[in-house]
From TrEMBL:
<dbReference type="InterPro" id="IPR023214">
    <property type="entry name" value="HAD_sf"/>
</dbReference>
<dbReference type="InterPro" id="IPR044924">
    <property type="entry name" value="HAD-SF_hydro_IA_REG-2-like_cap"/>
</dbReference>
<dbReference type="Pfam" id="PF00702">
    <property type="entry name" value="Hydrolase"/>
</dbReference>
<dbReference type="InterPro" id="IPR036412">
    <property type="entry name" value="HAD-like_sf"/>
</dbReference>
<protein>
    <submittedName>
        <fullName>Uncharacterized protein</fullName>
    </submittedName>
</protein>
<dbReference type="InterPro" id="IPR006439">
    <property type="entry name" value="HAD-SF_hydro_IA"/>
</dbReference>
Length: 230
């Protein structure tokens, strides 16, 4: 079976980890900010602290049925930064520096095959869009990447929807923006739960972007975006 079944009319893509990647890496950026505020941390230590803090926030989201907002996202990142960088001289300044950093296109790189893949899919008449658990900072980031212009008419951001992925309410908004039935929409993303399970639970077709081959038991899986064209 081709990766994009013939009945599919719209394809929506996750943002971070699928089309956009922090460059330098998030642990390197956190470590650099920590150092500016008097705390020397190895990137590996940053990563461990970050993952622990991130998971606490994810558990908090489950307790509120994945409700979100711009305020909730700022709260999320404030807690993650202050927990990850415990020991710095000015936690509030670190939070502001990091929040602002990731709103800039210069903090990101785009997937090398994104422009070619999106152009090819668009030429097949497919409706294209983006569905992200990021927040309003996605807009200034996208403005810096003409490679992703094919998606910018249909960008679904959880902080605006009010529900995070993998919540069904998020994917119902994607379906409405796509102006399709759920089973006519393909969702492509790198997160097994948030993207693949969330989309299929909402009745969509899903493909997991799995560049390291971590999830070989998943039937619909690609290792790079260009496989969508085969
Ligand atoms: Mg992702």
């Amino acid at each position: 079976m081709p990766h994009v079944p013939v009945h599919i009319r719209a394809i929506f893509f996750d943002a971070v980890g699928t089309l956009l990647f922090p460059e330098p890496s998030a642990p390197a950026v956190y470590a650099a900010v920590a150092l500016r505020y008097g705390l020397r941390l190895a990137p590996g230590d940053v990563q461990n602290r970050f993952i622990t803090a991130y998971r606490v926030e994810e558990a908090a989201d489950v307790a509120t049925q994945l409700a979100t907002s711009e305020a909730r996202e700022r709260e999320r990142w404030h807690r993650i930064v202050t927990q990850t960088l415990t020991g710095v001289s000015d936690p509030e300044a670190c939070y502001r520096d990091l929040f602002d950093h990731f709103a800039k296109p210069a903090a990101w790189r785009v997937a090398p095959d994104a422009a070619e893949v999106l152009a090819a899919l668009q030429s097949r008449g497919l409706v294209l869009g983006m569905g992200s658990n990021y927040d309003a900072r996605l807009w200034p980031v996208l403005a810096g990447f003409p490679e992703l212009a094919a998606l910018t008419d249909r960008v679904v951001i959880s902080a605006a929807v009010g529900v995070r992925k993998p919540g069904t309410g998020f994917f119902q908004t994607v379906t409405r923006i796509a102006n399709c039935e759920p089973n006519e929409v393909l969702f492509v993303g790198d997160d097994l739960d948030n993207d693949y399970v969330g989309a299929t639970t909402a009745g969509m077709h899903a493909i997991l972007l799995d560049p390291r081959g971590d999830h070989t038991h998943i039937p619909h899986r690609i290792m790079k975006l260009s496989e969508l064209l085969s």
